Amino acid sequence: MASRRPDSFDGLGYRGRDDPLYGASYPVRSAGGPAELQHHHWVTSPPDIPGSRNLHHTDRTPQLEEPLGGPGGPAAAWEAPQPGGPPAEQLNRFAGFGIGLVSLFTENVLAHPCIVFRRQCQVNFHGGCYHLTPFTAVAVMYSISKAQGVKSQWKGMGSTFIVHGITLGAEGVISEFTPLPRELPHRWSLKQLAGHLLLKGLTAVVALPFYCASLIETVQSEIVRDESSCGLLDCVREGLTRVLGVGAPHSRRLLPLTSLLLPAALHAMLRYAISSAVQRAALWLHQRARPPRHDPPAAAPPANPLDAYFPELAAAWAGCLVADVVLFPLETALHRLALQGTRTIIDATDGVAAGGGPLVLPVNTQYDGFSDCLHAIRRKEGAAGFYRGAGALAAQYALHGALLAAARTLLRLLLLDARAR
């Protein structure tokens, strides 16, 4: 049977012969390059997973640093068959997907015990130790896991995934039914930026009741937890009951969700703005610090795929770190207000009792609102009270950065070994 595909079908997309881009080599995408060179590109590798590259629909994964117009074009150097080894395109996919998967797994799974202990420190105003260094934080985390089991360090992890899913879904729905842009173009205006930040704030408002329910599951002590009533969708049920005002009665100190809307939206917008600004600045500095190539196009060696993907992951890591450190006081106040009146019992963050049994403490704050919470923390606990549990945050990002560097080194060795065959 004769093939019905047109001659101009190249497997990635169809372009007619009258298209001016047909038969021409594609320009290489470089960070900080002009936006005009990034039209009519095809996203081929690696897959855009969370924690990996944030590719737009007009972006092309950088695969070669050879200037446009070199002999054979950029695609010829990577798509040419290599005898005795896998093609460079396959190695490129493997490298990008591997290092992105390591970043995703570390951020959402391995670092979860640090998130649990950090939140417990933030809401425990009775604690005598503020855990401003990772050494004291890790010691108490070890004592709690030894007394209650390793499982206690990963409590509430399922609900955090559900909150992430609700956040992504709400952002997509709001952007579809409103003119608020979900992604910013390369050349954005102040109106587009304001609409994009407003979308982040509205998304945080929609996910707020479920975030509060997930926060309770994260800091609740395993000693008082009822295993028979623990389910994967409990945070959804608890979030809906708090919105509708039904279910088990809470304390009269429970604040309405309307008093938490402004702090939650402000925290979400500021965190996104700070992390994005730091990420762009880090990528710009990395691009400026790279030495210029003086080799002719024919002699320019192909770029290492890890050198193309790792700078963006490192920049995202730095952006999230700066945003979490700057907004740590705001997050502390938000978590205390969200837990007030919920009859939550947490682990004592000062360690175990002298008799060997673990201590638990109730969260019995009496704040009137966001401003009263900030003034009360500063008056009773000092400026350091806003940074309770900062040592756990340092341990979280140190673990994330170390595993990213180890994954980069391992994948580099694997790529060199595969190309040497």
* Secondary-structure element string: HHHHHHHHHHEEHH
CATH-derived topology:
Mitochondrial carrier fold
Largest sheet, in brief, is: 2 strands, antiparallel
Would you state the CATH class?
A: Mainly Alpha
Distance between the amino and carboxyl termini:
39 Å
Q: CATH homologous superfamily - what is it? A: Mitochondrial carrier domain
Per DSSP E runs of 2 or more residues, the count of β-strands stands at 2
Mean of residue pLDDT values: 78
Number of structurally distinct domains:
1
Explain what the structure shows.
Belongs to the mitochondrial carrier (TC 2.A.29) family. The protein is mostly helical. The chain has one domain (90-289, 308-420): Mitochondrial carrier fold (Alpha/alpha barrel). The protein is 54% helix and 1% strand. The protein contains 12 helices and 2 strands, in the order H-H-H-H-H-H-H-H-H-H-E-E-H-H. The chain has helices at 73-79, 88-110, 112-123, 134-148, 157-177, 190-219, 234-244, 258-289, 305-326, 328-339, 370-380, 390-420, and strands at residues 345-347, 360-362. It has a two-stranded antiparallel ribbon. Helix 9 runs antiparallel to helix 12. The two termini are 39 Å apart.
List the defining traits of the structure above.
421 residues, mainly alpha, Mitochondrial carrier fold
Write a brief structural summary:
The protein has 421 residues and is mainly α. The chain is built from twelve helices and two strands.
